[in-house]
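WARN retry 2 of 3 for item q-0093 after timeout on previous attempt; input resubmitted unchanged.
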Amino acid sequence: MNDKVFGELVFNNGWEKKLDCDFWGQESVKIRVSAYKDEEPNDNQRDAYSRFKEDIKQISRMSFKKMEEYLQIISDDIIAYLDFDQMPDDIRKIVSVNHILFMESGDFAVICDAVWDDHGVAVLCTETKMIAGPQDIVWMNE
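OK item q-0093 returned
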């Protein structure tokens, strides 16, 4: 499908594509749109993707920071599970971006693989907040 905002998308349990950009130090990131095969992305998803592309550097920086903060909160559990002496200096040694998921609501999430958890971890991004883990942290004013 060639969407007017997302561009060329391929269906794979949701519409997806690769976006060449610097995100958490990766050269590209997979973009996924939550929709069925017979559905196009909705206007909320398109608006969120446009915001994402406009502010990608800030979103990358702030979502990385929120993930670092969350991992620090749960560091004792991670250290025990991985049998480390301490948390690594660079969280990218234990967590990596799998994809950015654009939800029907217009929110999107940075979905990450985590070496200590088969389910992974995520940073939820709304228009006014980024949430990593159970805390609700306002990020736009930081």
